[in-house]
Amino acid sequence: MLFTKTKKEAPADEVSRNAELLIRGGFIHKEMSGVYSYLPLGLRVFNKIISIIREEMNNIGGQEVLLGALQDKSTWEPTNQWNDNEVDVWFKTKLKNETELGLAVTHEAPMTKMLTEFIRSYKDLPKAIYHFQIKFRNEIRAKSGIMRTREFIMKDLYSFNINEKNHLEFYEKAKEAYKNIFKRVGIGHITYLTFASGGMFSKFSHEFQTLTSTGEDTIYINEENNIAINKEVFTDKIKKSLGLSGNFKEAKAVEVGNIFTLGTKFSDALNLKYQTEGGENKSVFMGSYGIGPGRVMGTVVEVLSDDKGIIWPSSIAPFTVHLLALGDDKEISKEAVKVYESLLKANIEVLFDDRTGMSAGEKFADADLLGIPWRAVVSTRSISEGGIEIKKRSEEKGKVIPLDELLKMLASK
Question: What's this model's pTM, rounded to 2 decimal places?
Answer without folding.
Answer: 0.95
